[in-house]
Amino acid sequence: MIKRRTFLKVAATATAGALAAPYVHAESKKFSGITLRVNGYGGLYDEALKKSVAAPLEERYGLKVQFIAGTTSADFVKLIANRDNPPYDLFMGDSPNMVELTKAGMIEEIRASEVPNVKRILPDFREFGHYGVPFSVASVIPVYNSKYIKPPIASYSDIARPDLVGRAVVMAPATYGSLLTLLGLADENGGSIENVEPAFKIMSAAKTNIVALAQTNVAEIQMFQNEEVYAGIFWDGRAHELRTKGLPIVTVVPPKGVYSVTTYINVVKGNKYPEAAYAYAEQLLSDEGVLGVPRALRYGVTTDVTLPEELRRDLLFNSQGRIALKKKVDWEKLIANRSAWTEELNKIIRS
Amino acid sequence: MEEPLASRRVLTPALLLAPMILLLVLFLIVPTFGLLRASFLSESHLLDGSGFSLKQYIRFFSDSYYSSVLFETFVDGIIVSLICLGIGFPTGYSLARLSPPARRWRIIIVIMPLTLSLVVIVFGWLIILGRNGVINALLLSSGIASSPKQLLFSRPAVITVLVQQFLPFMILSVMSVVTQIDPVLEHAAANLRANRFATFRKVVIPLALPGIFAGFNLVFVLSISAFITPRLIGGNRVAMLGSLIYERIMAELNWPSGAAMAFILLVSGLGVTATLNALAASRLVRKGGRYAR
Amino acid sequence: MLALSEGKEDAVSESNDFVVELRSVSKLYGDTAAVADISLKARRGELLCLLGPSGCGKTTTLRMVAGFVEPSSGSIHINNIDMTHQAPYRRDTGMVFQSYALFPHMTVAGNVSFGLENLRWPREKRDKRVDEMLKLVELAHLAQRLPSQLSGGQQQRVALARALAIKPAVLLLDEPFSNLDAQLRVRMREELQEVVRSVNVTTLFVTHDQEEALTMSDRIVVMNAGKVEQIGTPGEIYETPATPFVAKFIGWCSLLKGTVDDAGAFTSTAGLRIMGNWSAGPATVVIRPEQLKLSAGGAPGQGQQARVLHSQYLGGATRVVLDVNGEQLIMQERFPFGRHPQHGDVLGITISTDNLRLIGEA
Ligand SMILES: Nc1ncnc2c1ncn2[C@@H]1O[C@H](COP(=O)(O)OP(=O)(O)OP(=O)(O)O)[C@@H](O)[C@H]1O
Ligand SMILES: [Mg+2]
Predict the structure, then answer these.
(1) Residue B96: which residues within 8 A CB-CB, separation 6 or more?
(2) C-alpha distances in angstroms, B25 versus A155, B36, C67?
(3) Is residue B105 part of a domain?
């Protein structure tokens, strides 16, 4: 099976290479004059997408892509409010946003007929049926500074370890990171999304450990950098960022499973250039496109792309075994529980 | 001749006020009513629901957690205001007693922090108060502490940063009122055997009370509605209602609940300032009575 | 006005009992001297006026006594104690400010009792004193008013009552009447004099109004450009001015510059001769208006020939500026109705040499 796919790929690449030059000329004006508007995540993230997705599209088709940096939740409100004249042609959102996006009926289903590279998406990485094209995955994992923390941290639950007193950080309540942390804690202690009580017990036990609840990723990075904290729960890509700054930060792979958020690109219903939008998705899922974000930020990939060695070393999901650890999340239920969990967590931590 | 003149006199102030009133109605009154409406929605996570329900308010008041957060928010607000008063009054007073040219660039220094983005200020404080920060370096080098102290992510840290942010409002309020107090009154008091302290207590402070109230109210209102500082400097561990509201609306997209909390904060905040002002005003009247023997 | 006998020691007017003494006091602002080397003494119970043109340093002097301005040099003594560097509230002075400086947030009674509170008088004594003072200035019925509800004259009296309530050794007044209209000023002047005399308090009074100074003071200190020109009783100042400036500043007069010859007669630079018995040398003669008389009905040909330059009817008398031998002289005279001198008229006058003041320039 894999062999055959590899063969097909090689064949396709060869064919494309052979046809490339005349094809580019013939199609050079295909999308010229069109500008697609995408809600951006800002900073390095958008830069990476511009380099690996937007730039090749412009070169090949004359298609321009404009990233409008913002906050996903606020951008979503903007989208809902302007149903008839959507302010974005493509909408980027994480798994939890997808619940609202699909419910709102604002996005198109995407199939292999429109975006052939959809076939390359790994099994279980498409969490919302035919909605959304996943291109990146970020995981919430325990991390620690090995200079100060000697017995290695091995699980989410170790956040409550007594030697971490006054030295731990978790993500602020109501953030996805915080909700996934609760799931991870529940899972490790006999609970589930139906029963997060065990997670709250661990949080209560960890209360004296937790000096701060990081509001933003930048804030948490600062806390590690300034050695305000030695251990905590963070995003895998960010842990790598800390390592590049020279900190001995260790990423822990919890043996009972890893909780992750997947990032999707969606084609907004009623946008004027569906063909161009599909072309964006196709390029995003191509080898070049899907490796763009990991190259810049070391978040995981969602397709069968072969990882270059330096990425294979750094990425969390770098093997079949690791990928098997990725836990399925009932996002709808998670959203429904968010308010209650946040309130409970607030009560535990802020008292 | 009389008639049109009189009517013009009424019309002109109305015309002068019109742009401000329009702005207020458009960008304050209308959104406020929108928010008030949203606070009576039952569960919709979006603004455009229908129906009328007290659910959000019941949720708030049936849980002692929220009332305790509200209470702590007010206590913090009062502490911040009092500290600002303690620091801001002498500063505002001395500024008012300078000659206008000498005052000018000092006022610029006072206002300068207000021109900085809050994010810059907060990150500055993170560096100052951090474990490897300036304060800890001083503590360590002077031998007061033997290991770095955890200064950030605590209530005192939040209060310190709020004081730094809102101090200019107190200074300017006090200054603008003190400039209206004739310095010769202080000479008169000194001539009537009042020392510096008695002069301050019996003459300067009573006459500066309007500025003190104004500054106190401003700082109090700004403090209880702060949310970025408690979240970043308090590391989210310091519960202030502003950050809960922000979380409710921005992270959970739960507008009805956030709106209800915002209204509770608004109304109780107004209540607290009104009560404080009434108390202060009655004290002032009694004081006048004392001097009236 | 209710006279009130103070418990103070009896006035010792001619003794050497000085309550205020300034010894060579100067005040420099930058390079300019607001006050330059002033020395003066005020006896117990004396009303001393500081008189001089605007900007001559009167207020500065008063403020140095009160302690609001520190002298650049010299010393200030109150009751024979050196107070030069003492804080204002440690000095035994009571001040009435030009703007009154009443505390706007206190009632009239509150203002008057303020100083007594600071002196920690017991409440009953304090209340009694406030009543007493308000009666003294006839404001007992307005005790509960706020200063903003009083007229200018009433405010002035509150300020006076407030300053006197604390029984200061020295009462300091800085042009207390300058904000009042002319009629009220005259009345307040009398009232003030009466009150101050009745409590027998040593008073330093600043004014630039010579009439005020002449009518009220025991002695006048005439100041000019930060310096003392002359100190003396109103009579001495008027009759025997020490300098041309004093002569010119106090009352109307004509100043003639010239020389006294060996015969003792004075000749002005323009050539006007006045017989006398003065010592020889350059000198200035002070001629007051009343020292010029019409000779025998003023017919020309009698006495000195005088040409009328202009005349000013004052109601009753007329002030006439005359040209006598090229010198301008001022005369004040009652002319019969309908016989007022006109520009160009020629009159015959005599200069009375009795009490004529000659200031030598040695
Ligand atoms: N604070 C000051 N700084 C600089 N110069 C001053 C100051 N106060 C007073 N002077 C100067 O000192 C001189 C004397 O001032 P002062 O107020 O004593 O005059 P005064 O005799 O009271 O005049 P007036 O009759 O106009 O009140 C003036 O030339 C004034 O300009
Ligand atoms: Mg003056």
Answers:
(1) B103, B174, B175, B176, B177, B178, B179, B181
(2) 54, 15, 56
(3) yes
Sketch out chain C's domains with CATH numbers.
Answer: 7-92+168-247 (3.40.50.300), 252-360 (2.40.50.140)
What pTM, to 2 d.p., does this model score?
0.80
* Region B23-45 average pLDDT: 85
User: What is the tally of structural domains in chain A?
Assistant: 2
Q: Is the ipTM of this complex over 0.85?
A: no
**For residue A245, what are the contacts with CB-CB under 8 A and spacing of at least 6?**
A225
The tokens 């589930």 sit on which residue?
Answer: A192
Same domain, A195 and A236: yes
Mean pLDDT of C344-362: 81
Indicate the number of domains in chain B: 1
In whole angstroms, how far apart are CA A343 and each of A217, A329, A339, B63, B153? 21, 21, 6, 10, 20
In a domain? residue B242: yes
For residue A260, the cross-strand partners are A139
> pLDDT tens-digit profile of A41-58?
988 899 999 999 999 999
Helix, strand or coil, per DSSP, at residue A167: coil
List residues near ligand 1 (CB under 6 A): C 29, 34, 52, 54-60, 208
Q: Which residue of B has its CA nearest to C104?
A: B207
User: The domain containing residue A241 runs over which residues?
Assistant: 139-259+327-350
State pLDDT tens for residues B148-188. 888 889 999 999 999 999 999 999 999 999 999 999 999 99
Give Cα separations from A209 to A187, A238, A265 (angstroms).
21, 21, 38
Domain assignment of residue B125, yes or no = yes
Q: Which of A213, A222, A338 sits opposite B236 (nearest CB)?
A: A213
Tell me the two tokens of residue A252. 């822990």
Residue C57 Cα: closest atom of ligand 1: 18
* Cα–ligand 1 centroid distance for C16 (angstroms): 31
- C45 vs C17: CA distance, rounded Å: 10
Chain B adjacent subunits, 3+ CB pairs under 8 A: A, C
Residue A211 confidence (pLDDT) above 50: yes
Could you tell me which of C358, A137, A215 has the C-alpha nearest to residue B246?
A: A215
A15 φψ region: left (φ > 0), alpha (ψ -120 to 50), beta (else): alpha
Chain position carrying tokens 């039952």: B42
Q: Are B194 and C89 in contact (CB under 8 A)?
A: yes
Confidence of residue B5 (pLDDT cuts 50, 70, 90): low
CATH number, domain containing residue B71: 1.10.3720.10
What's the token pair of residue C243? 């300098």
In this structure, the number of other CB atoms found within 10 A of the CB of residue B202 comes to 23
In this predicted structure, the answer to whether residue A21 has a pLDDT above a threshold of 70 is: no
Residues C184-215: pLDDT tens digits?
A: 888 888 888 888 888 899 999 999 888 889 98
Give yes or no for a contact between B272 and B220, defined as CB atoms under 8 angstroms apart. yes
Q: Which residues pair with C49 in a beta bridge?
A: C205, C220
Residues of B in contact with C113 (CB under 8 A): 291, 293
Chain B residues lying within 8 Å of A172, measured CB to CB: 231, 236, 247
Looking at the fold, whether A222 and A309 belong to one and the same domain comes out as: no
A172:B247 CB<8 A? yes
Question: Residues A97, A75: contact at Cβ < 8 Å?
Answer: no
**Are A249 and A185 part of one and the same domain?**
yes
Q: Which structure tokens are listed for C2?
A: 């209710």
**How many angstroms is it from C138 CA to the middle of ligand 2?**
28
Q: Answer whether residue B290 is part of any domain.
A: no
* Ligand 1 atom nearest C226 alpha carbon: 14
Q: Per 3-state DSSP, what percentage of chain A is helix, strand, and coil (rounded to 5)?
A: 50, 20, 30
Residue that wins the pLDDT comparison between C183 and A15: C183
| Both structure tokens of C135 | 């009666």
User: Does residue A118 share a domain with residue A154?
Assistant: no
